[in-house]
UniProtKB/TrEMBL annotation:
Matching Gene3D superfamilies: Outer membrane lipoprotein wza domain like (3.10.560.10), wza like domain (3.30.1950.10)
Alphabetically ordered keywords of this record: Cell outer membrane, Ion transport, Lipoprotein, Membrane, Palmitate, Polysaccharide transport, Porin, Signal, Sugar transport, Transmembrane, Transmembrane beta strand, Transmembrane helix, Transport
Signal peptide limits: 1-24
GO annotation terms (biological process): monoatomic ion transport
Organism: Mucilaginibacter ginsenosidivorans
Mode of membrane association: Multi-pass membrane protein
Cellular localisation: Cell outer membrane
Organismal lineage: Bacteria, Pseudomonadati, Bacteroidota, Sphingobacteriia, Sphingobacteriales
Pfam families for this protein: Poly_export, SLBB, SLBB_2
Protein name: Capsule biosynthesis protein
SLBB domain mapped to chain residues: 504-591, 601-713
Stretches assigned to the Polysaccharide export protein N-terminal domain: 165-226
Listed InterPro entries: Poly_export, Poly_export_N, SLBB_dom, Soluble_ligand-bd
Family to which this protein belongs: Belongs to the BexD/CtrA/VexA family.
SUPFAM superfamilies the UniProt entry points to: Nqo1 middle domain-like
Length: 830
């Protein structure tokens, strides 16, 4: 016993150590994975790679990812592993990698091939595209004027294909085209040097910087006329000077979305630079933009003048070293509701609510103009104020004000309404002295099927309480009790049919168009038979039944009766025995079927018979043996054990299947659901024991045929098929003396997942035989194999593996039980 106690103690110690080590290793692995994840830089800018595609990323996003890859020193192979671990599909990574490697070069090549522009121009277009994407994410769409810098069609790029401006100031890097024609001719292209001069052969150096083109032309002509080109002085030659290439200037922009130093064309204007820098920043002004030249404010630009009036007075040309400053805005307000352009607007000092309404496009058609609600911000809290229309021109909004323009009430102030049996129902203008009869006349008068005995007038009082007033339409039209109307009165005049049920008669049975038909006065049985398209060929001419509701049981029938039933005979041409049989509302006419009428029923026999094909059933109880005899008997190749019948599901079969499913749903038993569905899909394939049928015609195995039956007689198949959980599913020749194990061996044997106790055999006629496991599975008996059969080895049921938590829980339970055993044994030995 002492030795036994030592063994248990040692076992408990080993299990405890094993569990502790496993838990420690799992915790260490989790911490290592978490540390690795936290140390990996976010090179993908926080995108959800499992949902985003490479095509959804803008060029700016791709450029950002490329920069982060370079800065972090991560290779593309390492980046691929990170992307795949975050859920990006491999195909999407290949697309993204292609963009990371080829975006810049592809864009530059395309630009250079389409238009011979400078590298600076390509870069500027690239920055423009990237910035448009950035701006759409950054700027709130409500800010009035922000859309000016997020619309790709608005670029404000300077037009370089224009005539040389006469007031253009020349400077370094300007290129001049000098053309002399007449007595002397020459073409000279010169560039203004950084010193502000140009050099002409045989003329010398001429200073031109700071001069306009017109002034420079006069100076150059004078210099050239005094030297090598005297014909210019005498007028025998003419001089024309144009700009062949303009210089670039340097400007500085502050307070913008993209502040910085910019190099622009010397023809650029203020608006060109505004778009280049992305417009004002989030907190900067749209209305007090300063153009600073020589350290002084040269011009103040108000973008609202351009946005609301198209005024470009502030769009002046830029000069070297100009500074554009976007100061912080002083006052912004919000207006919403029934205005044409709701949003956030910037206001200047002394501007009023009327100016704000102008910027917002004015009121909409449904605006409530009498008063505007404004929510204000004080030093302590917020407050609300109602501004009457008279204060629009005087109220000066304060920073943070929120204006709300309401809508008018969805009702008419002077409407009366009439509905029902009038020719023009609807709303009409209320006028003093208007009465019920007057409103009926305005509505076109009464329709023919009007109910004049009673109508209703609904009146809504000032306190909202509704009052119902009834009147007689005929009396009112005759001037009796004609009620004067008030605003918002509503009249309803009913139709006669409103007080009648929708009377119908029903015809069923052997007619071409059974159904319900509208009842009419003096509708006869012959009429409704004609409306139903007449009787079918299967109709009985001696049994037409009419069922009628009982109106008064005490007068005609006993109290036990619930309907009156009439039987009428019919002859050829819809001639009725009682030609004047008149129907009543809700009568049900039933045309019975002729008991001697039977439509042909057909069955089909295919395969190994002498005359396969479709046959008409002769007798109600015709059987399989009779059909085979009519088909000329079996052919020499027919396999008697390979005959089956396919029968369509009848309505009774479908109803029975549905009943079984309903019971299973209530009881939770679904063991045969798949079998029922399989039978439905297989169209009820029935195995036939043809040997027994031919041996004993008319027996229970010799089934009675039904319409649509298909009998298939197979030919002898000398092979046996083995499928399912075998190493090599195959077909092999039938050997009569061999058992099932022989055929499994021919297929390479069973797999480790084979369920040997459930092996079954499907015979050619569709019959199935399963393995018999005997007592406790000790005396297993496999089905007999026949030629043409199929052996199916099913798969084992998949058992769910324990999760980590379940494993730990089970281990803890085992340890606890072992501890209890040890304690018990220890107590016993004390």
């Amino acid at each position: 016993m002492h030795t036994y106690w030592k063994i248990i103690t040692l076992l408990f110690f080993c299990i405890t150590i094993n569990v502790s080590v496993s838990l420690a290793q799992g915790k260490h692995a989790a911490q290592a994975a978490q540390m690795a994840t936290s140390q990996t830089p976010d090179i993908f800018n926080g995108y959800s790679l499992s949902t985003v595609t490479a095509d959804q990323l803008s060029d700016a996003d791709v450029s950002t990812i490329r920069s982060r890859l370079t800065a972090s020193g991560i290779s593309y192979d390492q980046a691929e592993q990170i992307a795949l671990s975050k859920g990006m599909p491999a195909a999407e990574w290949q697309k993204l990698k292609a963009r990371l490697l080829g975006t810049t070069s592809a864009r530059a090549t395309q630009s250079n091939s389409s238009n011979p522009v400078t590298v600076d121009s390509v870069k500027r277009h690239q920055e423009k595209d990237d910035y448009l994407t950035f701006q759409k994410q950054r700027i709130t769409p409500e800010v009035f004027g922000a859309s000016l810098f997020t619309t790709a069609s608005l670029s404000f790029e300077p037009n370089l294909r224009i005539a040389t401006p006469v007031n253009y100031i020349l400077g370094a890097d300007d290129e001049l085209q000098i053309n002399i024609s007449g007595y002397q001719e020459t073409n000279i292209r010169v560039t203004v040097q950084p010193e502000g001069t140009i050099f002409l052969p045989h003329v010398g150096t001429i200073p031109v910087a700071g001069l306009t083109v017109e002034q420079a032309t006069s100076r150059i002509q004078a210099k050239m006329g005094q030297s090598a080109y005297p014909s210019l002085k005498s007028g025998q030659s003419k001089l024309v000077i144009t700009l062949s290439r303009i210089k670039s200037i340097h400007i500085t922009i502050i307070g913008a979305a993209k502040p910085g130093n910019y190099t622009v064309s010397s023809l650029a204007t203020v608006f060109n630079s505004l778009f280049l820098c992305g417009g004002p920043g989030d907190i900067n002004s749209y209305r007090n933009i300063e153009l600073i030249r020589n350290n002084k404010v040269y011009k103040t630009i108000d973008l609202y003048q351009f946005l609301t009036r198209g005024d470009q007075q502030g769009n002046v040309p830029l000069q070297e070293n100009d500074v554009i400053n976007f100061p912080v805005y002083k006052e912004r307000v919000t207006i919403s509701g029934e205005v044409k352009r709701p949003g956030i607007f910037e206001l200047k000092d002394k501007e009023t609510l009327q100016d704000l309404l102008f910027f917002a496009g004015g009121f909409t058609e449904r605006a409530y103009k009498a008063s505007i609600k404004v929510k204000q911000v004080t030093d302590i809290e917020r407050k609300i104020k109602d501004l009457p229309k008279t204060e629009n021109a005087t109220y000066e909004p304060q920073n943070g004000d929120e204006f709300e323009v309401g809508s008018i009430l969805n009702r008419f102030e002077n409407e009366v309404n009439i509905t029902g049996a009038v020719y023009r129902p609807g709303g009409f203008e209320f006028t003093p002295g208007l009465t019920i009869s007057g409103l009926i006349k305005r509505a076109g008068g009464l329709q023919e099927n009007v109910f004049t005995g009673r109508a209703t007038l609904t009146r809504t009082h000032v306190n909202g309480v509704k009052e119902n007033i009834t009147f007689n339409v005929s009396r009112v039209l005759n001037g009796i009790n004609d009620v004067a109307l008030v605003k918002r009165d509503s009249i309803h005049i009913a139709f006669e049919n409103d007080f009648r049920s929708d009377s119908k008669v029903t015809i069923l049975g052997e007619v071409r168009k059974p159904g319900q038909y509208a009842f009419k006065q003096n509708l006869s049985l012959k009429d409704v038979l004609f409306m139903a398209g007449g009787v079918t060929d299967a109709a009985s001419s001696f049994n037409i039944e009419v069922g009628r509701r009982i109106v008064d049981q005490s007068l005609h029938v006993s109290v036990d009766s619930i309907a009156e039933v009439y039987n009428v005979n019919i002859h050829d041409g819809l001639e009725i025995e009682n030609d004047k049989f008149v129907l009543q509302p809700y009568d049900i006419v039933t045309v019975r079927r002729n008991p001697g009428y039977t439509e042909q029923k057909r069955v089909t026999i295919n395969g190994e018979v002498t005359f396969p094909g479709t046959y008409t059933i002769e007798l109600k109880n015709e059987r399989i043996s009779s059909l085979i005899k009519r088909a000329g008997g079996l052919s020499p190749l027919a396999y008697k054990k390979g005959v089956f019948l396919t029968r369509k599901n009848t309505d009774a079969d479908l109803a029975n299947d549905q009943s079984i499913k309903t019971v299973q749903q209530k009881t939770g038993d679904t063991t045969t659901t798949q079998a029922i569905e399989g039978d439905s899909k297989a169209n009820n394939r029935i195995a036939i024991d043809l040997e027994q049928v031919l041996k004993a015609p008319g027996s229970l195995d010799d089934y009675i045929l039904q319409d649509g039956d298909i009998i298939q007689v197979l030919k002898v198949d000398p092979l046996v098929r083995i499928s399912g959980e075998v190493l090599s599913p195959t077909k092999t020749g039938f050997v009569e003396s061999e058992s099932l194990n022989y055929y499994l061996t021919q297929a390479g044997g069973t797999t480790e997942n084979a369920r040997l106790s459930k092996i079954y055999v499907v015979y050619p006629n569709g019959h199935v035989s399963k393995t018999s496991n005997g007592f406790l599975g000790m005396f297993r008996s496999y089905p007999k194999i026949e030629t043409g059969a199929e052996i199916i080895v099913p798969h084992k049921k998949i058992r769910r593996e324990l999760t980590t938590g379940e494993t730990i829980g089970l281990t803890s339970t085992i340890v606890s039980l072992l501890s209890l055993v040890i304690i018990t044994i220890t107590n016993i030995h004390k």
